[in-house]
Structures are given as C-alpha cells and as structure tokens.
C-alpha cells in the first residue's frame, strides 16, 4: 500500500514523496526532515534526525537504526518490529531508549559478509550495522582523506561536494574472497555511487558476485533501478536492495527566494587556555598507523584501529576501553543536558561513547557538508558555524543547530586525533559563544581531555 505526502521546502517549492515500502511502518517524518539548497541538480536535501550527523539525536537511537537495517537485511524483523516502531515513532520512547535494551538482538547468518560504510555520513551507520552480527563479518569504511599508503579501491560520488572516495585496508587480502559485499549508506538517490564502487570492486576483485545495497532511504526512480539490473547483466553479478523506507520523489514548483539567514560568524574574543581535568590519561586504544612522537609530543597523530577505516574483523572491538572512557567523561558532567560532538568521518566511536555517558546526552557531528541555514520555524538547519578542521589542515568544516543559550550544560568534542592546534583554537572560539556551557576537547589518539577556560593562552 502506497502512502503519498507533500512537504514544503521553501517559498515556491514543495516535494511530493510516494512511499512504496516501509517494513517497520515508521512515520516518514521520524526518518527525515526537508532542507533547501542552492543546487542546479536538486533544490532540496533530506536531513536525517536519526543518523547523528547534522541533527542532535539520542546516540542509542542512531545505533538502533543500524540494528534495524541489519534485521531487515537478514529477514528477522518480526520479533523486534513493534519495539523499533515504538522507539522511532514516539518522542518519549526515543528520548529514553538505551541500546542496551536490545543487546540480545544480535543476528546470526549462515554465511560471512563484508560490510562497507560510506563516508562521511554513514561511517557510524555502517559500523552499527556490522556490530549487529554474531556470525563472521568484516567492516571497513570509505574515506576522503589522503593517506600515505596505497588505496585498494577508489571511486567517485558524483553528486557530492567532495567526490573522491578511497578504501585503505590493513589486510591486503581484505576483499580477496567471494563473500557478499554489503554497501551501507544513509540515502540512495540515484544509486550512481553504488554502481561506481561495484565496478571498481569487480575490476580489482572479479571473484565478487553478490552485492546488497542497504540504506535508510531509497529514492531511486524506475530508470535508476533499471541501471542496477543492467549492471547485473553486464558483469554477471547479483545486486539486492534493502531499506527502511523506499519510494519516489517529485519536485513541485521552484524556489522563488532563498537566503542564508542563520549563520553565526561572531567568535569569543577573550583569550583561553586548555586545562587537563584528569591526572591520568584516558584508556589506550589501538592504532592502525602509529603516531610519530618527538619527546612527549605527538608530531604526526595516529589513526585509531577501532574506527574501521582500515578494516575490522571483530565485533565490539575495544568495547571495554570505550566503556571506561564513557565513565570518565560522564564524571565531568554537570546536572542537565550534554552534547557529544564527533568530527567528520569520526562518528561511531564518539557515538558509542556518548551512549555510555548517562541520560540526557545528545550526539551529532561536524561535517564537510555546506547546508543552507535558515532562521525559520520547523526548518531543521540553523545556527551554522564554519571553522577549519583540527583533524585535516585546509578542510572547512561546519556544525549546525547548537543553541546560543539555554541548551547544553556541557559540550564534549571528541577527536580521533588533533593535527592542527590553531584550527582547534578557531573551533573553541566559536563554541565559547554558547552561554553557560562547559567545553571539553577529547583527543583519543593522545589519550587526553582538555577543558576550555577563559583567561590566558597556554
């Protein structure tokens, strides 16, 4: 049974959504919000309230979305269908849900699988999907970062603002078997990115014959779907598709007027210093690429193994260390609400740590995506802040939706590594404009946490 809904996007433009498949019977508004953008190809954008990228969310709900996709993929939704529907559709249930309530909902398959998450938005979604399986599985995510080693895959995301994707694997044999490849993304609009990576996988590893596309939203047109069937015939492969919501999209009208009116450009002018709240370092996490240390200073920060950027073959990798980090950061919290910010592609570990920091914690991340911000009722993107990335010199990042006042008592920004201290200062200056919030920066590579304090430079 189809469902048709219309959404206003901006003056003069509406979007008509026709829902064709909804296995959990989730309210569409629970899975996406509509934002406008200035783009010749498409004037609107689906913004996810469950992904933990642009909008704040209970981190356990984001982890649940990965579990829900795994249940649909495996055909095992019946036992958990009602519970997942209630959590996603009911605001109170969504606010109070803890992923530990579904710790027994692990899935056993009769075959191993290889899971790939797409950067930057679906790195955590892909890992949450991977963590749902008790049977043998491997996980890796694509990256836009240039790393000093040979990529085993490279392809283009044609519609993106940063198009080049690469895959680096610690194990050179990561793809050298015939296991099914599961590609996980938050949204499939045309499917061209999936077709591009499948072509590159087949070019490098022709023994791969079975693929599944897993997404929260699948908006491919009939023509786009036919392109998948044609690639199957061309390459002699099988491609399946799984989603939480499948349908089609139609633009009605054109945007008549649009301007960005919720951009925050002011910054705290006072000098600040960073104080360490812990005498001991945070628990040690494993490195995929070891840091280069000069004396006690890390000159070239490390990449962490547990992100999956270089491949994981073990579920709940270093979970005990994450629990300890969550407990230490929880001890810094004041009474009230807290925000945990991940950074760019570094999503899953901060999301999991946030879920271990107690109640009334929300999570989202910084992003490369420049989305139009507006000071308009019910418009999802507002309070846009722009700053250079402390993890990648020369890359502009954004963060959205953090209130100036009466919002969070504590804000924790979690980094895989800090490579540019001056960029960290820029991020600090824009966050210090948030009234009454304590700001903490957590560098997991160097195992240090810092509290931002006005009063000097150290």
From TrEMBL:
Residues covered by the Orotate phosphoribosyltransferase-like domain: 31-248
InterPro entries given in the database record: PRTase-like, PRTase_2, PRTase_dom, TRSP_dom, UCP020967
Top-rank lineage group of the source organism: Bacteria
Coiled-coil segments: none
Keywords: Glycosyltransferase, Transferase
A molecular-function term among this protein's GO annotations: glycosyltransferase activity
Domain TRSP: 307-428
Protein name per its UniProtKB record: Phosphoribosyltransferase family protein
Native organism: Enterococcus larvae
């Amino acid at each position: 049974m189809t469902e048709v809904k219309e959404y206003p996007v901006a003056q003069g433009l509406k979007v008509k959504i026709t829902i064709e498949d909804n296995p959990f019977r989730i309210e569409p508004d629970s899975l996406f919000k509509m934002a406008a953008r200035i783009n010749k190809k498409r004037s609107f954008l689906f913004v996810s309230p469950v992904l933990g990228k642009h909008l704040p969310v209970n981190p356990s709900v984001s982890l649940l979305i990965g579990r829900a996709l795994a249940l649909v993929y495996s055909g095992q939704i019946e036992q958990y269908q009602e519970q997942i529907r209630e959590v996603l559709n009911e605001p109170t249930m969504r606010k109070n849900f803890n992923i530990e309530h579904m710790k027994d909902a692990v899935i056993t398959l009769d075959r191993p699988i290889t899971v790939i998450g797409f950067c930057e938005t679906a790195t955590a979604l892909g890992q949450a999907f991977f963590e749902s399986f008790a049977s043998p599985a491997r996980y890796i995510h694509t990256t836009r970062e240039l790393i000093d080693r040979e990529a085993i895959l490279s392809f283009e995301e044609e519609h993106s603002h940063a198009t080049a994707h690469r895959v680096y694997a610690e194990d050179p044999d990561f793809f050298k078997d015939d296991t099914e490849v599961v590609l996980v993304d938050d949204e499939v609009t045309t499917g061209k990115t999936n077709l591009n990576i499948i072509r590159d996988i087949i070019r490098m590893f022709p023994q791969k014959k079975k693929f599944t596309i897993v997404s929260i939203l699948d908006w491919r047109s009939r023509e786009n779907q036919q392109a998948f069937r044609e690639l199957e015939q061309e390459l002699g492969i099988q491609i399946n598709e799984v989603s939480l919501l499948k349908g089609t999209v139609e633009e009605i009208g054109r945007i008549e007027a649009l301007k960005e009116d919720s951009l925050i450009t002011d910054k705290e002018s006072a000098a600040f210093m960073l104080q360490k709240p812990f005498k001991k370092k945070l628990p040690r996490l494993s490195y995929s690429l070891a840091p280069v240390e000069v004396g006690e200073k890390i000159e070239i920060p490390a990449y962490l193994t547990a992100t999956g950027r270089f491949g994981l073959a073990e579920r709940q990798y270093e979970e005990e260390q994450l629990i300890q980090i969550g407990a230490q950061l929880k001890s810094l919290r004041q009474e009230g609400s807290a925000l945990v910010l991940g950074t760019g592609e570094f999503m899953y570990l901060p999301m999991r740590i946030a879920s271990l920091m107690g109640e009334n914690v929300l999570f989202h991340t910084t992003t490369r995506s420049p989305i139009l911000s507006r000071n308009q009722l019910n418009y999802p993107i507002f309070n846009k802040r722009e700053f250079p990335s402390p993890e990648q010199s020369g890359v502009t990042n954004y963060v959205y939706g953090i209130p100036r006042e009466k919002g969070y008592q504590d804000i924790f920004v979690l980094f895989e590594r800090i490579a540019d201290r001056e960029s960290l200062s820029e991020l600090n200056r824009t966050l210090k404009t948030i009234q009454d919030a304590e700001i903490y920066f957590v560098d997991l590579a160097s195992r240090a946490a810092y509290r931002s304090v006005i009063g000097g430079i150290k």
